[in-house]
Amino acid sequence: MKYSVYENIRKIRELKNLTREYVAAELKMSTSGYGKIERGDVDLTVSKLIEISKVLEVSIEFIFKFDVSIFFNETTR
Protein backbone atom coordinates (compact mmCIF):
# COMPACT_ATOMS: atom_id res chain seq x y z
CA MET A 1 0.00 0.00 0.00
CA LYS A 2 1.29 3.44 -0.83
CA TYR A 3 2.62 5.57 1.99
CA SER A 4 0.22 8.35 0.97
CA VAL A 5 -2.72 6.27 2.24
CA TYR A 6 -1.28 6.39 5.76
CA GLU A 7 -0.55 10.09 5.45
CA ASN A 8 -4.06 10.71 4.09
CA ILE A 9 -5.60 8.96 7.09
CA ARG A 10 -3.69 11.31 9.40
CA LYS A 11 -4.58 14.43 7.40
CA ILE A 12 -8.27 13.54 7.21
CA ARG A 13 -8.32 12.86 10.97
CA GLU A 14 -6.66 16.21 11.67
CA LEU A 15 -9.03 18.12 9.35
CA LYS A 16 -11.96 16.58 11.22
CA ASN A 17 -10.39 17.68 14.52
CA LEU A 18 -10.26 14.13 15.82
CA THR A 19 -7.52 13.03 18.18
CA ARG A 20 -5.47 9.88 17.77
CA GLU A 21 -6.83 8.81 21.15
CA TYR A 22 -10.43 9.15 19.96
CA VAL A 23 -9.88 7.22 16.73
CA ALA A 24 -7.90 4.52 18.54
CA ALA A 25 -10.69 4.13 21.12
CA GLU A 26 -13.30 3.84 18.37
CA LEU A 27 -11.17 1.15 16.72
CA LYS A 28 -10.72 -0.60 20.08
CA MET A 29 -6.94 -0.40 19.89
CA SER A 30 -4.15 1.39 21.69
CA THR A 31 -3.16 4.92 20.77
CA SER A 32 0.38 3.77 20.02
CA GLY A 33 -0.96 1.00 17.78
CA TYR A 34 -3.07 3.48 15.87
CA GLY A 35 -0.11 5.86 15.62
CA LYS A 36 1.85 3.07 13.91
CA ILE A 37 -0.89 2.91 11.29
CA GLU A 38 -0.70 6.65 10.60
CA ARG A 39 3.10 6.48 10.34
CA GLY A 40 2.95 3.50 8.01
CA ASP A 41 4.95 1.36 10.45
CA VAL A 42 2.50 -1.55 10.11
CA ASP A 43 0.68 -3.02 7.15
CA LEU A 44 -2.93 -1.94 7.00
CA THR A 45 -5.49 -4.69 6.44
CA VAL A 46 -8.56 -4.16 4.33
CA SER A 47 -10.80 -4.76 7.33
CA LYS A 48 -8.91 -2.17 9.41
CA LEU A 49 -9.11 0.33 6.52
CA ILE A 50 -12.87 -0.20 6.40
CA GLU A 51 -13.11 0.42 10.16
CA ILE A 52 -10.99 3.59 9.88
CA SER A 53 -13.12 4.91 7.02
CA LYS A 54 -16.24 4.44 9.16
CA VAL A 55 -14.73 6.28 12.12
CA LEU A 56 -13.55 9.13 9.86
CA GLU A 57 -16.95 9.09 8.08
CA VAL A 58 -15.42 8.96 4.60
CA SER A 59 -15.28 6.31 1.91
CA ILE A 60 -12.24 4.15 1.34
CA GLU A 61 -11.98 5.69 -2.11
CA PHE A 62 -11.81 9.15 -0.50
CA ILE A 63 -8.88 8.02 1.66
CA PHE A 64 -7.00 6.77 -1.40
CA LYS A 65 -7.71 9.87 -3.51
CA PHE A 66 -7.54 12.53 -0.80
CA ASP A 67 -5.48 15.55 -1.82
CA VAL A 68 -4.81 18.12 0.89
CA SER A 69 -3.99 20.75 -1.74
CA ILE A 70 -7.73 21.03 -2.39
CA PHE A 71 -8.06 22.66 1.02
CA PHE A 72 -4.78 24.55 1.36
CA ASN A 73 -3.52 25.14 -2.19
CA GLU A 74 -0.42 23.11 -1.38
CA THR A 75 1.49 21.49 -4.18
CA THR A 76 1.55 17.73 -4.02
CA ARG A 77 4.85 16.00 -3.50
Give a description of the structure:
With 77 residues, the chain is mainly α. It contains six helices and no strands. The chain has helices at 3-15, 20-26, 31-39, 46-56, 60-65, 69-72. The relative contact order is 0.18. The mean pLDDT is 89. One of its GO terms (molecular function) is DNA binding. InterPro entries: Cro/C1-type_HTH (IPR001387), Lambda_DNA-bd_dom_sf (IPR010982), TransReg_Diox_bact_type (IPR050807).
Coarse structural class: mainly alpha
Order of helices and strands: HHHHHH
| Biggest sheet overview | none
Amino- and carboxy-terminal Cα gap: 17 Å
Helix content: 55-70%
Number of strands: 0
Summarize the SSE layout with pairings.
Layout: H1 3-15, H2 20-26, H3 31-39, H4 46-56, H5 60-65, H6 69-72
Short structural description:
This protein is mainly alpha-helical and 77 residues long. The chain is built from six helices and no strands.
Which terms summarize this structure?
77 residues, mainly alpha, 0% strand, globular
